[in-house]
Prior knowledge:
Chain A is mainly alpha-helical. Chain A has helices spanning 12-34, 37-40, 54-60, 65-68, 83-90, 102-110, 130-135, 140-144, 161-169, 188-191; one strand at 115-117. Chain B is α/β, with parallel strands linked by helices. Helix content of chain B is 34%, strand content 19%. Chain B has twelve helices and twelve strands. Chain B has helices spanning 2-5, 10-13, 22-31, 36-43, 111-115, 138-150, 168-180, 195-203, 235-244, 267-271, 280-296, 306-315; strands at residues 16-18, 51-54, 68-77, 80-89, 92-98, 130-131, 134-135, 159-162, 185-188, 220-224, 257-262, 274-277. A three-stranded antiparallel sheet of chain B has the order 3-4-5. In chain C, helix 6 (124-145) packs across helix 10. Chain C is globular, with a radius of gyration of 24 Å. The chains are: A mainly alpha (216), B alpha/beta (320), C mainly alpha (481). Chains A and B meet through strand 1 of A and helix 4 and strand 2 of B.
Amino acid sequence: MAVIFPPWTNRVPPLLALFSLGAVVSGVALVWYYFSPQYTDVGFEPTQPMPFSHKAHAGELGMDCRFCHNTVEQGAHAAIPSTETCMTCHASLSLPQSVPLAAVRMSWEMDKPITWVRVHQLPDYVFFDHRVHFAAGVGCVSCHGRVDEMAVVSQAEPLSMAWCLACHRDATPNLRPFSKITDLTYDPQNAGYDPNQDPKRKRKVEPPLHCSGCHR
Amino acid sequence: MTKLMQPEDPKEAEGVLDEVDRRSFLGVMGASMALAGVSTSLTGCVRKPREKVLAYTRRPEDLVPGEPRYFATAAQLTGGVIGLLVESQDGRPTKVEGNPRHPMSLGATDAFTQASVLDLYDPARVKLPRVEGKVLPFSALEERFEHFKTNLGDGEALALLIDGQESPTLFSLLYELRRSHPKVKIYRHDNACPRNGVAGAGQVGIRGTRPLYALERADRVLCLDMDFLGVEGDVVRNARHYAWRRRITSERDTMNRLYVVEPAFSVTGTNADHRLRLAPSQVGEFLADLIGHMASRGVNAPAGARRPLHAAGRRLPASR
Amino acid sequence: MATPRVSAVEHEANLSDPLSGRAPLLLGDRSLHGITKAVCRPVECVPSRAWTLFFVVSVAMMGLYVLTTAYLFYEGIGIWGVNNPVNWGWAISNFVFWVGISHAGTLISAVLYLFRQKWRTSINRFAEAMTIFAVVCALSYPTIHVGRVWLLHWVFPIPNQMGTWPNFRSPLLWDVFAVTIYGLVSFIFWYLGMIPDLATLRDRAKTRARKITYGIFALGWRGSTRHWKHYERAYLLLAALATPLVLSVHSIVSFDFAISQLPGWHTTIFPPYFVAGAVFSGFAMVLTLMVIARWAFKFEHIVTIRHLENMAKVILLTGMIIAYAYGMELFIAWYGQNPYESFSCANRAFGPYAWAYWIMIVCNVIAPQIFWFKRARQNVVVLFVVSILINIGMWFERFVITVTSLHRDFLPSSWGDYSPTFFDVAALVGSFGLFFTLFALFIRYLPMVAMSEVKAGLPEAKPHHGAEGGSREASATGEGA
């Protein structure tokens, strides 16, 4: 009678057990990483309808973020500026005839909005408010990265719930003086900033950790 | 209905459009879940649906996208006017509330006014002018008006039917129309208008006005077959004033009393301290009796009210 | 087949245990080969018509479960009779019922093993199998009653991008761990104990397919001394590991109720009361199935009246504990002078669901009292009938606990009633279908009595036995080789 199970099969059960354990652990790990916004969303860099360069405007020209995104202090959204904002400078000051500006001129003359592709997009069930974060002294750079170095804007942070909670549990490293909120190069750690010692801060920053803080 | 409602899609109202709508995206996502790992490595990204942001070309000066704006306005209801604050989200009216600084609202509204915001989104609402059932652009309408005006003459052939508005602007326009075309006939018709109130005011010598009740000063309120807290004119103001006199904040405060005589159930009747159910034909008798009672106890009606009271008393049989 | 039979004289001589003088654990053909043959027969013969019928009916019932569950996922929890205020209905009753059933297996295999109760060997495999199938049924309920079954993985603490964890302070989460671990340990215990018997089946197999199949699951068991040494050690360790689980699982299931603040639930007596109830119902279920199986497969000489009587004694004991718990609930309700608690008790006994309460009392408290009589304990028909009554009574106990406490809320304005829908009934019937299907497969394809352990309990296995020269076969797998 032929041998059905040669001696090497003795090693199969323990190896199989080990393999199953590894499969479960690595399965969880793979989903944990590859299905998370850290992997799927960071680096999202859609092609925009026109080659607007934040690097040129915020970086090289040194314009303040609020010059264009001026509703950040009063509203939930830091609204995309209107065509009028672009034309304030570009109608006369510089490069009025350049090719990249054609879309802006067209929008202005035909009264048609420019259709930007949204980069930083939170789910609809999250209520995010720029105003309160601004008032707490969280810098733009904390969530949007070094926009002043981006010729095309891409998503720098995962914007996942765990990422939000990390700061909500301990906001101190991300707080900065109110005068430096839009300063993308400022680093509160290097500058040795301590929010508790800042006389301009009227109250302690206590971000909500309960569900309805963000899911209202 | 669905088709008609489409232009009011809330996504559009926010100025944000989905390239792929969420539902179909999720459907595809669910089906290709197994392929997700592959597609991540191929496209570099499994992402939420791409959203477009449509920025304003010229943003109104005080508008912050996503933040509500409030506009003070007024609406007319049952012959009265009510001052309102209307909340507007990105150019869309979403909520109607009372204007606290308007004397006829005092910060509150009634159910009709609350619901009136839906009128704006009524699919049957007329969006363009219609002439003889045909939709016309505004430019064509202007032509028609010019034509109409030149053929009007002294207005012999024109009759206007208007509702019971009290707008001074409307009145001045009507006045102008009458002056240029003296033979224009103007008719007013409005069931909700307090015509009896106006007639009553005329009887006591104040012509062209309608009564406003000073309930905030009344200690005793007698209501004869009238729903002043429910549906009959100025209810918001009446309810506020009536309630003020029932609020006790210190030990010296007193409450008003409400006596209602009515033939049917009404909001006012349910709020009454004493309610008497009487047939409509007997309400007048009740009043006459009451006057007699008051007179016998040496209580006189106010000077202005004496004439109509006597008039009422005359018409009623003396036996009661 | 010519088999070496123990002579009739020897057989009679060995009938009573020489040390304890008790009745023997085995009757009839007690030779090693005879035991093997009797146990392996149902696995090796063509399935009987009765088995086929039983299997088809069970699968049909299970199909009902699959269909009703599919509809549940499609339509939602609303198809059940649950409502506000009775948010927990049959699903939780059935869950607790099945978890309770599952207790007998571990008690018999682990606790009685540690106490060296030899009589367990004839029934432990059977009871363990029942444990595992009951745990499968029990786990199916929390799985489907969450409503959004595709989010079920949220009950486990898996790292995720939301940075959220299940609520570790909730007894419902403890339940997840307790029942899952219990099912896992029970399965390993059951499987480990079965390895030598699987090897026997492998060695007796006639066809290549059977050889390969049983060979895979026998994990290369050859019956060497080293194998036996490791096996015994592992078995002992697992028994020690499983013993605390007997107490912990149903304690934690009782926390689902006891941790809450509802009158009728919020009592400290719940954990021991639930554990006793679990053993009670578990033994009743083992008894029900065993009475049928020993008759159907002619195991009367392996699962003897003495085994059944011992189980009846355990049922009587745990039944008395249950009765004490019922009484103590009433006593505390009166003695504690809490109006809500006393209302809750009165409502149970005399409210709209009083019929369920009295079914519970009759079945769980009064019916087992008959086991005070030896003749009742030795009468198979009485055993069977009473075990069925206890199964019914214990299901009603869970129903009474769940529904009567919920349906009368603190505020009379929040009072409500509960009545099951067709889908509730279908889910309960279907879970029995699942249970019986698994059972039918078990008795058809696996050895339902632990052959090696039964053999080790024979007088011949004792070191000092056999001065007159009994059977010398030491290995349990000696026959087929």
